[in-house]
Amino acid sequence: MADADAGYVPVTPAREDRYAPDGPACADAAKELGVATRDVFLNTDVFWRNIPDAMWDFHIGGYQVLKKWLSYREDTVLGRDLTLDEARHITRTARRLAAIRLTAPELDANYGACVAAAVPLGSASSQ
């Protein structure tokens, strides 16, 4: 059962039984990332287990990041198998997206502080 717009085996339905965060830091991560995860299959041999739903659904510029990256790595597109480094890249990308998601509240607060402290262009006195 292939995904029509991606060509690879679709992700498994979200499951909450495999990821049980524990402790204060994990509780914060669970709040931001959620506890539902899924397995993402490139084909019958290559898959990534336990990708948080929030990472699978993460969009930048209107694109679902992980799904878009994987769609360009299909055998029918590349004409070759995925390299081990390419397979590891998707894992690193999911972790980076999680880090962005986890630091987003702090980044938003810092941005707000910078905006509040900014001096409008042309209003600063010349020296």
Beta-strand portion reads: 5-15%
Order of helices and strands: HEEHEEHHH
Counting DSSP E segments of at least 2 residues, the number of strands comes to: 4
Shape descriptor: elongated
Proportion of helical residues = 40-55%
Radius of gyration: 19 Å
- What is the typical, i.e. mean, pLDDT? 78
Largest sheet: 2 strands, antiparallel
**How do the strands line up in the largest sheet?**
1-2
Oligomeric nature of the chains: single chain
Q: Give unreliable regions as ranges.
A: 1-9
Q: Domains counted in the coordinates: how many?
A: 1
Cα distance spanning the termini: 69 Å
Number of helices: 5
Please describe what this structure looks like.
With 127 residues, the chain is α+β, with helices and mostly antiparallel strands. The chain has one domain (1-104). The chain is 46% helix and 12% strand. The chain has 5 helices and 4 strands, in the order αββαββααα. It has helices at residues 24-33, 53-56, 65-71, 75-78, 84-117, and strands at 37-41, 47-52, 59-60, 63-64. The protein has a two-stranded antiparallel sheet. A two-stranded antiparallel sheet has the order 3-4. Strand 3 (59-60) and strand 4 form a beta hairpin. It is elongated. The N and C termini lie far apart (69 Å). Mean pLDDT is 78; it is low at 1-9.
